[in-house]
Design a protein that fits this description.
Elements (H helix, E strand, L loop, with lengths): L4 E6 L3 H11 L4 E7 L3 H11 L4 E2 L2 H8 L3 E4 L6 H10 L3 E4 L7 H14 L3 E3 L7 H11 L9 E7 L8 H6 L11 H6 L1 H8 L8 E7 L2 H5 L8 E7 L5 E7 L7 E6 L4 E5 L4 E5 L8 H26 L7 H15 L8 H31 L14
Parallel strand pairs: 1-2, 1-4, 2-3, 4-5, 5-6, 7-10
Antiparallel strand pairs: 7-11, 8-9, 9-10, 11-12, 12-13
Helix pairs in contact: 4-5, 5-13, 9-13
């Protein structure tokens, strides 16, 4: 990557640490300032990463430092206004997921970026891990034999996470609770975006079912939907399932693509990619040859992961590292952005459809409870005893 970029970071929370750490490793990049409404938090952040200038207002950050790129790592409610201000001031923008709270906001930002000749991306870093890029290359090579027939995306979440999940459950004023989809809104874009990348329709039919798990109900938490099942359908074309769960064990982060010729399975947790042969072997050979082929593939995944360790590129944020590098290259070389705007907008629209359906279902359920007749004191036929 050639050229020099001045980078600013808006927001000094947990994920901002990953951004700053990765940016500092890139040649030709300088973090010229950070912004956070809590000065002490900004001071600690600047000291940690040897950043000279800190601000409490985004407008002042932009005016005083004149960055080329701004990374927005604030809570989602503020993404739209901060990104809009940055674009209007001539800055390229990297927005952490979810891109915006509503799809209408995403569309406005993307249109503004195009009007200004600026570039925007969103933090769907799981699409840029080593294993995800290997899957994408296979799909582009035609391995599936055509467009996907069906896709399945699984995203597990651990409610025992001491840093994030426990804070959310213990704090009734937590910012996640203000989002339309609450916990779901802050995390499912990773799994939805995997599907959106390979859909061809801009308006797939979405059917969503969500509920509060028995575990959350047992601790009197009835406001956070943590189990979600979604069906997506492109007419008579590609279909997809999306599953979010806090209760499934093991907790999966998996993506499956089924094609007309062959299929692929991506296991994000273990950085495993498996090719599924479409044709069966004859007779009993089908019981012996496939296990041997799978064993060979698993060994190949092991060796691939080991090479990444040797190259010092096997870490939690390798996907973010690749995404940032790709985004910066698109700016310096005026090339295509790593995540097409169509995919960003489609992900936002699918999430809108999910949360609108969940809200409608919960409202109808509440009305049904309120309207239910009182039946205390009647027998099974409704007659008084």
């Amino acid at each position: 990557m050639s050229g020099m970029l001045k980078i600013a970071i808006a927001g000094c929370g947990k994920i901002a640490n990953a951004h700053a750490s990765l940016i500092r490793r890139l040649e030709g990049c300088e973090i010229v300032g950070v912004c956070n409404p809590e000065p002490l938090k900004a001071q600690q952040f600047c000291k940690r990463y040897a950043i000279q200038r800190l601000f409490t207002e985004v407008a002042e950050l932009l005016q005083q430092t004149r960055p080329d790129v701004v990374h927005i790592t604030t809570p989602p409610e503020s993404h739209f206004e901060i990104a809009r201000l940055c674009l209007e001031q001539g800055c390229h923008v990297y927005v952490e997921k979810p891109f915006t709270v509503r799809a209408e906001q995403a569309e406005r930002l993307l249109n503004l970026a195009q009007e200004k000749g600026l570039k925007v991306t969103v933090g769907h870093n799981f699409q840029f891990t080593h294993v995800a890029r290997r899957m994408r290359a296979l799909v582009e090579s035609g391995y599936l034999g055509g467009v996907p027939v069906h896709m399945e995306s699984y995203y597990g979440y651990d409610l025992a996470d001491p840093i994030y999940a426990r804070a959310l459950l213990s704090d009734k004023q937590h910012w996640v609770r203000r989002l339309p989809g609450k916990l779901l809104h802050n995390v499912i874009s990773h799994g939805v975006a995997r599907i959106a990348e390979f859909l061809t329709s801009d308006a797939p039919r979405v059917t969503a079912c969500g509920f509060v798990s028995p575990f959350l109900k047992s601790i009197n938490e009835n406001d956070i939907v943590d189990e979600l099942r979604v069906i997506l359908c492109e007419g008579e074309g590609t279909t997809a399932y999306f599953t979010f769960s806090t209760q499934m064990k093991p907790s999966l982060h998996e993506f499956r693509m089924y094609g007309p010729k062959n299929s692929l399975v991506l296991d994000q947790d273990h950085e495993i990619l498996l090719k599924l042969r479409g044709r069966r072997f004859p007779s009993y050979a089908n019981k012996f040859i496939p296990p041997a082929l799978f064993a060979k593939q698993h060994l190949g995944n092991l060796l691939h992961n080991f090479r990444q360790v040797v190259d010092r590129d096997f870490h939690l944020y390798s996907g973010m590292n690749n995404l940032i590098r790709s985004f910066y290259s698109s700016i310096l070389q005026d090339g295509p952005v790593p995540i097409p705007y169509r995919e960003i907008l489609l992900t936002a629209r699918i999430m809108d459809a999910i949360f609108d359906q969940l809200r409608t279902c919960r409202s109808q359920a509440q009305l049904a409870v309120q309207a239910a007749p009182v039946t205390v004191g009647t027998d099974a036929r409704g007659a008084e005893p």
